[in-house]
Amino acid sequence: MNPIEGAHGKLIMGGWIGETPQGQEEVFLLLTTPSPTAGESMTAIASGLGLRPATDPRDPVEVPVEAAGVAIRDDGWLRLHIGNDHAERPVHVEMIDMARARRRVVLVVGTKPMPPGVAEDAYIDAHGGAAWLGLVSVTPHD
Description:
By secondary structure, the chain is of the alpha/beta class. It has helices at residues 38-49, 93-102, 120-127, and strands at residues 4-6, 9-19, 25-32, 52-53, 61-62, 68-72, 77-82, 85-90, 104-109, 132-139. The chain has one domain.
């Protein structure tokens, strides 16, 4: 994964299909940073979007479309909008099909730094309890 520079600093976006605690398969998007200030910066992004900590037993909140959204382009790239900023990455067709069918993705905002070369599953295994979650709507592509 290549870091993305933007208004929120250097961000890393990953993605996978996984099972929710309720047993339903969903598309997950991980947004974090390699920066040692991840605790502050990513918590600010998560709380600004109204996300809940992963340890909260309630279902993830739905993020208002004005605050964040996901657009899937016809060329297989997914774009996560947060306010006026965005991050992009290519995704597998299975992720595209599921995100479009569900019309949402689970946004996972990691609050621990993600060093270069660390796999998404290893990061989540180590730091998933410190993440924040929310549901982000899939919008028409731009």
